[in-house]
């Protein structure tokens, strides 16, 4: 039995999300079916983080166990062959020790959230970024975002469906930068609550349009009440970038 | 009568190209129909450069004349409304003088060509980049590319269907850079021959994989014979970036 660690890129649009669900195709199911087709083995593929419907990944990490013997390169190429035509690409495959677990042993995840900030609609980035037409002040967003960095109770930025035992998380990084008409929000933490990045971005947008200041953001955080923070940003702009071990 | 200058972004995948053709939807036709719907006027939209089927634009420039009076902002928003759901976005609209002509008065065009250079297939960049699996040496490509910069007879890099009167062009810039597993080729010139960028990139790929050196590229250029240069790179990776006036 060999444990395999995969790094996976996907376009989240056609999927109900990372996790297997009855209501449509998931990334997890696509990977499990590709493994079954190439090896004849029924496996469970464990991801380092669940992504929602429409959320993309540049470097999702997952693992599974196989009885049959492969080389990493052979396994990568065979998985990619069997994944076609789903927009999922296995970018890297490595053998992993028995005690490696994509979710449980991860010590850090990072995401990027892309906003295209212009009046004109999106042509090249439809479904790949959040389209915000009101001018956003990226510097004000970045400055306010620092209120959220550190160890906090993130109840105000947590989805009602969130299954985490505790709302306490340590946010290591929340940087906002403007590149032309695009605004990128970089977030890193050991782990995140459900919808945490999208809820933080949706709230930072209020800062960007000048409706909120850093003090409002701090009040929302301290309220520990989801209704006191801003709306959930759409999935379109969110990318799972990497997981650390 | 007012002449209008437009800056347009599009995803080239669903189109037969910029130019109106009988065999499918074109960007030009989509724009002309949007103008007709919003103004009732039948116009000819002139582009600064024709792009082939599947080629994208970040900043194609075009112009047309309208009898009816609009403000630039109103025209931009109305055009975008009437273009839906085509993946075309009018990013900017400006009034232009009578003697402005998107193609004839342009003094420079720039393109970028994106190659994703990795073994794994593309998930997020399907149709948006050329997928090259053999490792490419971007530095060697950049060095060899300088052979093509300057005033030359580009017959070896010209499509057989090219309608330009002369194969003489001055290439101002041909830079190759690697950004992670992506290679970007930046090309700028007053104007280009049909397929010139794609033929140059297809030939530079031979340099990237080590099959050709700069001397081979020079020999191909000097041969003034299309059959002596490399293949035409696919349209997927090509983006019309901007036009100068």
TrEMBL record, chains A, B:
Stored InterPro entries: PsdUridine_synth_cat_dom_sf, PsdUridine_synth_TruA, PsdUridine_synth_TruA_a/b_dom, PsdUridine_synth_TruA_C, TruA/RsuA/RluB/E/F_N
Quote the catalytic activity from the record: uridine(38/39/40) in tRNA = pseudouridine(38/39/40) in tRNA
N-terminal signal peptide: none
**EC?**
5.4.99.12
Q: Which Gene3D superfamilies match?
A: Pseudouridine synthase I, catalytic domain, C-terminal subdomain, Pseudouridine synthase I, catalytic domain, N-terminal subdomain
Keywords, sorted A to Z: Isomerase, tRNA processing
User: Which residues of this UniProt protein bind substrate?
Assistant: 111
A Pfam family that this protein carries is: PseudoU_synth_1
Please name the catalytic residues of this protein.
Answer: 52 (nucleophile)
Q: How does it assemble?
A: Homodimer.
Q: Which family does it belong to?
A: Belongs to the tRNA pseudouridine synthase TruA family.
Matching HAMAP family, A to Z?
A: TruA
Q: What does this protein do?
A: Formation of pseudouridine at positions 38, 39 and 40 in the anticodon stem and loop of transfer RNAs.
Protein name per the record = tRNA pseudouridine synthase A
Organism the protein comes from: Azospirillum doebereinerae
């Amino acid at each position: 039995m060999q444990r395999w660690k995969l790094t996976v890129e996907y376009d989240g649009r056609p999927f109900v999300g990372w996790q297997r669900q009855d209501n449509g195709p998931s990334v997890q199911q696509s990977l499990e079916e590709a493994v079954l087709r190439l090896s004849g083995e029924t496996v469970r593929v464990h991801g380092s983080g669940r992504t929602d419907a429409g959320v993309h990944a540049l470097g999702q990490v997952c693992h599974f166990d196989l009885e049959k013997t492969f080389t990493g390169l052979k396994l990568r190429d065979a998985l990619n062959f069997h994944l076609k035509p789903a927009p999922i690409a296995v970018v890297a495959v490595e053998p992993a020790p028995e005690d490696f677990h994509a979710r449980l042993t991860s010590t850090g995840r990072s995401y990027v959230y892309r906003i295209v900030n212009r009046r004109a609609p999106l042509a090249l980035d439809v479904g790949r970024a959040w389209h915000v037409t009101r001018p956003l002040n990226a510097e004000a967003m970045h400055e306010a975002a620092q209120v959220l960095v550190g160890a906090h109770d993130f109840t105000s930025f947590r989805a009602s469906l969130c299954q985490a035992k505790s709302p306490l998380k340590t946010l290591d990084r929340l940087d906002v930068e403007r590149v032309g008409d695009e605004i990128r929000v970089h977030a890193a933490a050991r782990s995140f609550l459900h919808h945490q990045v999208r809820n933080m971005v949706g709230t930072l947008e209020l800062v960007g349009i000048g409706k909120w200041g850093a003090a409002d953001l701090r009040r929302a955080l301290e309220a520990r009440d989801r209704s006191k923070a801003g709306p959930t940003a759409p999935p379109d702009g969110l990318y799972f970038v990497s997981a650390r071990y």
